[in-house]
């Protein structure tokens, strides 16, 4: 079920919130769990058993780790727990490649479903972080299975995260009184509607541009001029940001309405003045997850330059692989590894003008998204030759005419101008609320008028 | 003062929460309470039906998909929301394309045909027609109908990189002219471009467009067109066709379907095999009752049946191999021909030799729109050997 669907907005959301608010504090987690199960099962019931199996495994593993004394056995226990969580992700994400590999070495075919279970990456990240936090004694193992299950599978975070830590929401989970007041609810409603508007008004309006290359009935990359390819890559960069950050904002808005304060997943990444800063502002919860559970445990920057470079390479290869099994994601990971390494070791000490830094970061990010999107119909070598070969072909004029206004509005929103204007003008609350309601109506019109576009990051 | 501000802010927060909740609740309530539409007339389709909850559909997720489609088709004020979206797209985002349909000048909607799709199927189809005509013992005439975009290029959105259809049609006719007689309707339609030749909201030509083409066809065959009397023409308003169904353009100006009422008999055949068929039903070549329904264009020739026969009042027997552009063209032929056979390869999968022999057809007309000629992968069945 998509947040940007009539079923969710008209029926699931109101019913689930009414039930959540009506039941006494002690039952809220139970209600939220049932709602999350229904939400998950709506997509396809067949993937629910896997999730229902992993939750008690993690519950038990964490309790065992919590009771064990420091030592190799405890480490082994964590290793087993992490392995059990990561295995399904590997099988579902790379099953096709594993199957090919098995066939190639002559051990028959591996029959695997072609669909990746909804949210598998996100609940795996959450579960692994929980086990690691218990292992590091940063939190006590959860004794209530329902509370742990709610943390892992709360429906608002099932599609694209954010990847929050158990410690971030533990206190709210344990609250037996009211969890959110009217002000918090209003803030949550506002966040949800703004996120929805970013997704359906802007991201979906730009979606058609990249589809000219990625879909069979589009014009195709080969026929496009260099100008058009640059415009399409820029549109894709904006679309990805608005889609993903919009969904994250919807998720955090829903959490806020229910009383959970969750970390922002984005902080104006396209305003960053370096690539290092860009990654501190883009998909923040994923970046921090890799930092805390991969990079730092590997030694981070504490074991010399070579080891730091190796650690960075591992992190970026894993980040690339997490997005998918195709080669472009590995190249994309390698691309960022090299740039970040260069920034750290070569450019890091010299501070340039912020405008130059911003232009450089934007160029790197946009080119990076080009590499990121170059799969299937879109060939990476052709894309690069189009971008830098300055060849002719179908002109950008029509497409700029068709997507131009949506593009400019998207730049305006992605560049943080809306937020800054809102803060500077400090307009009356009622203006803010009327704008919010107006956006709700327009967004709903877009939901009904469109044929339903899933979140781009739901597939990762 | 601070307390007061906090209080006011709290009131406004409550107001936002309540207003948002009210809006959603009202829409949800009306969605549940209002009667369920069976047909979405404007979109030319049936509304999604209420899904039944079976274990299998829950397991594979198809129940969720079906329920989503069901609710989407029944949302209260659905048309209002669709129009509002399209309005914002056009008035604010300045979009000139909706779901693959180009929004042209004078509220005319066009099929998008940007360079991109390969012409492999077109070449295959041209080769198939050439081969068929070379082996045919009776004359073969070909008519390739251009799209509205080719006749009215100036009405396309600015800078739209639409493919050069007229050039491609010219190349195709050059290729076919060695074995077939060609009726060049592109020129004829361009000469009459000030008339109402194409529907604004559908990909087909109007009966007027078909009439001009038919007169040219009769001239090519040295026959009297024997057109019905214009004074007898009837009209049906409120037609929103395929282009509207895809784009759902908010300013769409419904079209008028013109037709000549007739009492001739169209026999729709149930195809049993190669040149084997039996009568399935008898109807009118233009059925006014269907003009009241949601799929109005199906009033012509009862839709796209595999093989049908129209008994005319003229002389000679002709077989028309066609796509849907011929549906309003064929009824014009009834006064000029004695018997008109109609084959539509969407529902027919055999060669024509046996059929021509059995029904003693004297000539063949292949009438296709350029768009169908480019994409139809069943026209090659023309050359299937008889059984």
Beta-strand content estimate of chain B: 15-25%
Q: What is the 3D form of chain A?
A: globular
Biggest β-sheet of chain A, characterized?
Answer: none
Overall structural class of chain B, as computed from helix and strand content, comes to alpha/beta
User: What is the string of SSEs of chain A from the N terminus onward?
Assistant: HHHHHHHHHHHHHHHHHH
Spatial ordering of strands, largest sheet of chain B: 7-6-15-13-14-12-10-11
N-to-C span of chain A: 16 Å
- Name the poorly predicted regions of chain A: none
The helix/strand series of chain B, from N terminus to C terminus, equals HEEHHHEEEHEHHEHHEHEEEEEEHEH
Structural class of chain A: mainly alpha
Distance between the termini of chain B: 95 Å
Q: What is the rounded Rg of chain B?
A: 25 Å
Summed over residues and divided by their number, the pLDDT of chain A gives a mean of 90
Molecular structure report:
Chain A is mostly helical. Chain A has 2 domains: 6-179, no CATH class; 183-304 and 342-459, no CATH class. Helices cover 71% and strands 0% of the residues of chain A. Chain A has 18 helices and no strands. The radius of gyration of chain A is 23 Å and the shape is globular. The relative contact order of chain A is 0.11. Chain B contains 12 helices and 15 strands. The N and C termini of chain B lie far apart (95 Å). At the A-B interface, helix 1, helix 2, helix 8, helix 16 and helix 18 of A face helix 1, helix 2, helix 3 and helix 4 of B.
């Amino acid at each position: 079920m998509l947040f940007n669907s009539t079923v969710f907005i008209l029926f699931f959301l109101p019913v689930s919130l009414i039930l959540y608010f009506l039941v006494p504090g002690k039952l809220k987690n139970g209600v939220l769990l049932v709602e999350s199960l229904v939400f998950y099962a709506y997509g396809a019931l067949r993937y629910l058993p896997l999730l229902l199996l992993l939750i008690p495994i993690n519950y038990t593993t964490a309790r065992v780790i919590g009771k064990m004394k420091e030592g190799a056995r405890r480490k082994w226990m964590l290793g087993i727990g992490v392995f059990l969580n990561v295995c399904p992700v590997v099988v579902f994400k790379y099953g096709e490649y594993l199957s090919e590999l098995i066939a190639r070495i002559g051990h028959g075919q591996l029959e695997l479903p072609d669909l990746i279970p909804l949210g598998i990456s996100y609940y795996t990240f959450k579960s692994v972080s929980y086990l690691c936090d218990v292992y590091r004694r940063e939190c006590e193992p959860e004794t209530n299975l329902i509370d742990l299950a709610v943390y892992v599978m709360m429906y608002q975070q099932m599609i694209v995260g954010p990847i929050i830590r158990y410690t971030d929401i533990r206190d709210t989970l344990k609250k037996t009184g009211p969890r959110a007041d009217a002000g918090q609810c209003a803030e949550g409603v506002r966040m949800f509607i703004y996120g929805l508007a970013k997704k359906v008004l802007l991201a979906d309006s730009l979606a058609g541009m990249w589809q000219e290359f990625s879909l069979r009935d589009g014009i195709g990359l080969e026929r496009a001029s260099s100008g058009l390819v640059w415009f399409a890559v820029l549109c894709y960069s904006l679309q990805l940001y608005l889609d993903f950050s919009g969904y994250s904002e919807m998720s955090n808005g829903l959490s806020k309405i229910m009383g959970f304060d969750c970390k922002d997943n984005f902080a104006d990444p396209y305003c960053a003045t370096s690539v290092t800063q860009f990654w501190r502002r883009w998909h923040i919860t994923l970046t921090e997850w890799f930092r805390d559970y991969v990079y730092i445990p590997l030694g981070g920057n504490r074991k010399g330059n070579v080891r730091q470079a190796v650690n960075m390479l591992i992190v970026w290869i894993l980040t690339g692989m997490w997005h998918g099994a195709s080669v472009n994601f590995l190249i994309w990971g390698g691309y960022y590894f090299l740039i970040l390494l260069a920034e750290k070791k070569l450019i890091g000490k010299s501070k340039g003008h912020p405008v130059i830094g911003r232009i450089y970061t934007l160029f790197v990010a946009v080119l990076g998204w080009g590499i990121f999107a170059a799969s299937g119909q879109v060939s990476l070598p052709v894309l690069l030759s189009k971008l830098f070969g300055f060849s002719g072909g179908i002109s950008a004029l029509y497409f700029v005419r068709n997507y131009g206004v949506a593009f400019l509005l998207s730049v305006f929103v992605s560049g943080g101008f809306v937020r800054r204007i809102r803060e500077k003008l400090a307009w009356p609350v009622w203006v803010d609320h009327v704008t919010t309601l107006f956006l709700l109506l327009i967004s709903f019109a877009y939901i009904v008028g469109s044929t339903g576009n899933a979140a781009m990051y739901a597939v990762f | 003062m601070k307390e007061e501000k906090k209080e006011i802010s709290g009131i406004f927060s409550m107001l936002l929460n309540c207003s948002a909740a009210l809006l959603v609740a009202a829409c949800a309530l009306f969605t549940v309470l209002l009667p369920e539409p069976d047909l979405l007339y404007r979109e030319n389709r049936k509304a999604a039906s209420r899904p039944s909850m079976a274990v299998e559909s829950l397991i594979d997720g198809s129940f969720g998909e079906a329920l989503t489609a069901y609710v989407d088709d029944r949302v209260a004020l659905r048309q209002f929301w669709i129009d509002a979206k399209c309005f914002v797209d056009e008035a604010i985002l300045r979009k000139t394309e909706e779901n693959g349909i180009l929004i042209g000048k004078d509220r005319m909607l066009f099929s998008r045909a940007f360079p991109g799709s390969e012409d492999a199927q077109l070449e295959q189809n041209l080769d198939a027609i050439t081969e068929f005509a070379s082996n045919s013992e009776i004359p073969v005439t070909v008519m390739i109908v251009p799209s509205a975009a080719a006749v009215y290029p100036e009405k396309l959105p600015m800078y739209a990189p639409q493919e050069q259809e007229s050039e491609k049609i010219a190349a195709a006719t050059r290729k076919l002219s060695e074995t077939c007689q060609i009726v060049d309707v592109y020129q004829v339609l361009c000469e009459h471009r000030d008339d109402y030749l194409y529907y604004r909201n559908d990909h087909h030509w109007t009966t007027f467009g078909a009439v001009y083409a038919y007169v040219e066809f009769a001239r090519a065959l040295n026959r009297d067109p024997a057109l019905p009397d214009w004074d007898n023409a009837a009209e049906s308003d409120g037609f929103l066709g395929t282009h509207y169904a895809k784009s759902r353009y908010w300013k769409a100006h419904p079209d008028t379907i013109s037709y000549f009422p007739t009492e001739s008999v169209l026999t729709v055949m149930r195809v049993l095999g190669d040149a084997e068929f039996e009568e399935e039903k008898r109807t009118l070549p233009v059925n006014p009752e269907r003009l009241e329904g949601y799929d109005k264009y199906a009033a012509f020739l009862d839709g796209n049946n595999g093989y049908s026969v129209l008994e005319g009042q003229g002389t000679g027997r002709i077989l028309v191999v066609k796509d849907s552009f011929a549906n309003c063209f064929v009824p014009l032929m009834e006064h000029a021909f004695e018997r008109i056979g109609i084959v539509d390869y969407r529902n027919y999968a055999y060669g024509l030799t046996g059929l021509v022999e059995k029904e003693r057809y004297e000539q063949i007309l292949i009438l296709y729109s350029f768009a169908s000629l480019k994409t139809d992968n069943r026209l090659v069945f023309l050359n299937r050997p008889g059984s």
